[in-house]
Amino acid sequence: MAGKEPLVITGKDEMRQWSRSARAKGKTIGLVPTMGYLHEGHLSLIQESHKHADLTVVSIYVNPGQFSPNEDLSTYPSDFLGDVEKLKGVPGGVDVVFHPRNLYEYGQNDGVKKGENGVNREEGKVVSCLENSGVRHETWIRVERLENGLCGKSRPVFFRGVATIVTKLFNIVEPDVAVFGKKDYQQWKIIKRMVRDLDFGIKVIGGDLVRDTDGLAESSRNVNLSPEERVKALSISKSLFNAKLAAETGKVNCKELKDSVIRAIHEAGGKVDYAEIVDQESLEYLEEIKHPAVFCVAAWFGNVRLLDNMEISV
């Protein structure tokens, strides 16, 4: 019922104890991982969790391991109390909000040196905000092929950070089901592949992308758009819809479809990070759409990087 007050848990051991107690009573657990500043897209994932599990845990944690030092970790929006109020309004409610302070806190720091500008000077490698802060965390999960391309090109530490924090959450919450939004299409596929390859006993569900009434894909970062930038950013969804319609009426040349989207975004004043049409399963780039594909776009409007995608079947 609406208005249910979720239990807020901050400790790893307390979270594990709750999950194991629930499972001992025969309950199944769904996990919806988030970084907070919840919107309708997140709330739809909770509704999806209700279809597959008896109890639902929502994690709220902004993960420094997936941000490079030159990215927007420090400005990522946050409103924990507002998030809890939104969760109380979800039909069916949420059972637990897992809100840890720091999932990379292991006790005594062993004195690793900080990098500068995201570069580990000993190895010459790009590192995350986590390593740049001097935290001693050495174990990373990589899904080597699927993380290449799309977001992986311009965000080299992103997917190893995502895969690692999701693994940590899986080990702490011990869910039966985990629900991820398909707006982050590559992320969803990477988590599915990781679960398959590492034999996690967890079913990964993809929740449909949710759009605002004007067509813009729901994102926590949308709050950082100015009113003018938001209007211009609608060029992403509009051009994707047009490309989908064109493909479904026989125009299946990927270069032509990509050029039309890139042109629309540029004309609106945006900067395209990538616009690619890939196979829905392998995420391999396509030259022509002959089977289920997904058109993935990342573009900048002002200082805000936005993601969107459109599944296409011909």
UniProtKB/TrEMBL annotation:
InterPro entries named in the record: Cyt_trans-like (IPR004821), Pantoate_ligase (IPR003721), Pantoate_ligase_C (IPR042176), Rossmann-like_a/b/a_fold (IPR014729)
Pathway: Cofactor biosynthesis; (R)-pantothenate biosynthesis; (R)-pantothenate from (R)-pantoate and beta-alanine: step 1/1
BP-aspect Gene Ontology terms: pantothenate biosynthetic process
PANTHER family xrefs: CYTIDYLATE KINASE/PANTOATE-BETA-ALANINE LIGASE (PTHR21299), PANTOATE--BETA-ALANINE LIGASE (PTHR21299:SF1)
MF GO annotations: ATP binding; pantoate-beta-alanine ligase activity
Matches recorded under CDD domains: PanC
Subunit (UniProt): Homodimer.
Signal peptide: none
Keywords, ordered alphabetically: ATP-binding, Cytoplasm, Ligase, Nucleotide-binding, Pantothenate biosynthesis
Record-listed E.C. numbers: 6.3.2.1
Full protein name: Pantoate--beta-alanine ligase
Family per similarity comment: Belongs to the pantothenate synthetase family.
